[in-house]
Design brief:
- There is one protein chain.
- By secondary structure, this protein is of the alpha+beta class.
- The protein has 7 helices and 13 strands.
- Strands 3-5-4 form a 3-stranded antiparallel sheet, with no helix packed on it. A two-stranded antiparallel ribbon has the order 1-2.
- β8 and β9 form a beta hairpin.
- It is globular.
Length: 369
């Protein structure tokens, strides 16, 4: 690695949590820490300004979630979801969405093909069976699959011990598989064999991958004693053939946005390599429970020794490269692809489960329990 890219930062020697946006240890509501997009108060999620856009969200027949920005106090005139759902309590909030728990009036939810996301079917991507365009402001309301384990932020912010290593492996594997599908249409069939979905048409750029937008779900079959992880909240997503200058959540800006002055208007179009960077940020935040400083050279990244041994430290350094073309690709290219390493982690996760067992179930909270 070029040593010039690892020049000592102005606050060298201080712990990573001293950077803006870091998750402080032992913070409380009386002493909120400065945050890149707002403030962190104890274990509460960042208070970030809501963006002027709307996105909607769900659960299966009897429960549902609804996400929207600038949502009306009631579902309102012209919102066709009103005849199908009754809005319940607020259960979460992210940089551009408020999440409500809904009850369905009907057993069946009609699917929509208004957006490409309604055609995405992957075990680690939240399913979107319906999309409505609401007049007169033409807001987009999405009906999404409900995940009963809350968000990855919920998990990290309430954790009182180190993140279980086997859960880190689970998260790395499943988020990488989700990005492999979004970017390349690839799905894992078995070890070393990935196939392209014949219905895949264009790469999808999420543009806002972070702890808030990764959801946990306990299905009927719980693999390795852990919840599955699903990528959600596609309110800033776009396709690679129609890229936009969407920047995502401020605390998770990629270097190409930071170098453009943190402004959406001056930022370059997002790419699937932007998602690789935010994947690295999300994994770092899960492991260290703090945020990686924006655009810091990856040679400064240090993780506990167990992650060096697993190869995750080196993999995340590659993902956090400043230049997009220096980052790995989420495919099985023998030179740049990360999926060969994902196959290795499959085996390591299985061995760890057989040797040590699953993580303590009390660490997780089920919203439908």
């Amino acid at each position: 690695m070029d040593k010039t890219s690892c020049a000592r930062p102005t606050n060298a020697g201080k712990p990573a949590k001293s950077f803006p946006g870091a998750i402080p240890e032992g913070s409380d509501t009386d002493n909120p820490a400065t945050h890149a997009g707002g403030k962190l108060k104890g274990s509460a999620q960042p208070e970030t300004p809501l963006l002027p856009a709307s996105i909607c969200v769900i659960k299966q027949p009897s429960f549902t979630s609804l996400r929207s920005v600038n949502a009306p106090s009631s579902l309102g005139e012209g919102v066709s979801l009103e005849k199908d759902y009754v809005r319940g309590k607020l259960i979460g909030q992210s940089s551009e969405a408020r999440v409500y728990l809904l009850k369905s009036k009907k057993a069946a939810v009609p699917a929509s093909t208004l957006l490409h996301l309604s055609k995405v079917h992957h075990p680690h991507i939240v399913f979107c069976p319906r999309v409505d365009i609401v007049e007169p402001d033409f807001q987009i309301w999405q009906v999404l699959e409900f995940c009963n384990g809350g968000s990855l932020w919920d998990f990290v912010s309430t954790l009182k011990e180190k993140t279980p290593v086997i859960l880190v492996l689970q998260c790395f594997i499943q988020l990488a598989e989700a990005l492999a599908y979004l970017g390349y249409g690839l799905t894992r069939q078995y070890e070393g064999h990935w196939e392209v979905d014949p219905n895949f048409t264009s790469p999808i750029i999420h543009s806002d991958l972070n702890l808030n937008n990764v959801l946990l779900h306990f299905g009927q079959c719980v693999e390795y004693g852990m919840p599955d992880l699903l990528v959600a909240d596609f309110g800033m997503s776009t396709t690679a053939d129609s890229p936009r200058k969407t920047a995502g959540t401020p605390q998770y800006y990629c270097p190409e946005v930071v170098s453009a002055g943190r402004g959406i208007s001056s930022a370059p179009p997002m790419s699937i390599q932007s998602d690789v960077y935010t994947f690295g940020l999300t994994m770092y935040a899960l492991i260290m429970r703090e945020l990686w400083p924006p655009a810091l050279p990856p040679c400064w990244l240090k993780l506990p020794p167990v992650y060096d041994q697993l190869g995750i430290t080196n993999a995340l350094r590659r993902c956090l490269e400043i230049k997009p073309d220096a980052r790995p690709t989420m495919d099985n290219d023998p030179g740049t692809g990360l999926l060969g390493f994902v196959d290795v982690l499959w085996e390591k996760r299985h061995k760890m489960f057989m040797d040590e067992g699953p993580p303590d179930r009390s660490l997780f909270t089920r919203m439908d329990a």
